[in-house]
Amino acid sequence: MIEENIESSIQNLWQEVRDLNLGTPPHIDHLPTPPTPLQFLRHYINPNKPCLISAAVPHWPALSLWPSLAYLRTTLATTAVSLHLTPTGKADSIAPHPTSPSSLCFASAHVEKLPFPEALDSVMASEEKNKVAYLQQQNDCFRSEYGALAADCEGHIPWATEALGCSPEAVNLWVGNHLSETSFHKDHYENLYVVITGEKRFLLLPPTDVHRMYIRKYPAAHYLYHQDSGEFSLEIDDPITYVPWCSVDPYPSPNEKQREIEKFPLYFNGPKPFEVTVKAGEILYLPSMWFHHVRQSPDDTGLTIAINYWYDMQFDIKYAYFNFLQSIPHSLSNDRALFETRNVESNLDGSSFDSGDESDTAVTRDVRDVSDNEND
Ligand SMILES: O=C(O)CCC(=O)C(=O)O
């Protein structure tokens, strides 16, 4: 009885934040031009509400320069950059456990440092179900590895910097194609995400929907790419560590769809996520702690290029409310069903339930090198 009351209160919360604050999915606010710092603070940062901003960076040379691969190859001719390799395009995501394939693990990409022109060739040559390359490194890479491109963009987003009262903690570059996909997760940053070429498609869920993500602890694993055979192996990290991660794949294959709906009913049968396509020259404001899933489509050159600015979030009362909500168990029966399904299948399921926090994940781990914020 108490459980039912809690579950219906949480469900009311999902609806109430939409009715009172966010609006009706799939749309988010779309601003034709950048807001003033005060508008941004009042209407978006304080209410923790996303928005899409057009004509956001018309003065950036990157918009006209980066669609030219020749320009990028010349400017970065001798620069070593981090290339993430996976067999499927899904890095930092849930994958079959290597020694117990009916259970799951958290798989990170094989990362190589290569001269940019070679790394770019690898992205362009990516092949589905074989080898997918994504140029990215969430450790402030734009200001380190890609320093030669600094003059093509601003070092910060001025109206966001003024509204947030600080400079970006990290600026990251993402160069990929339609095969790269980023699984549902959240970050403890205010994110200003700028697309330069191609398009990015985001699915967004507010922090209040945390129970719909089925965050579980998965054993950490990493892909190894074997140059000689051209094949990948997946190895569990030694010593073993566990990564809390979202379990939901919002785009299951047709033959897995029914099973996924049964495993994750709170996601598939609950309110639709917000959906936004970010085009070249636009900025998505992705508020801290929002769950996001990202796919992309390239422009004529075959690439999608984006740059994002991570600003420190305030660890204020919203953060405290979020932690409290996350600590409340929801839908115990569904959790049990998931647990039992996996154990019947494998008897050796590495994953475990987690009411805790995803913050200590691969996605945020790298950037901690440049962060002195230990709050998360
Ligand atoms: O562009 C992507 O693939 C992922 C972006 C992302 O997760 C982020 O900016 O936090």
From TrEMBL:
Domain JmjC, first and last residues per copy: 133-326
Positions of region (Disordered): 349-376
Protein name: JmjC domain-containing protein
Biased amino acid composition, Basic and acidic residues: 363-376
SMART domains per record: JmjC
Family in the record: Belongs to the JARID1 histone demethylase family.
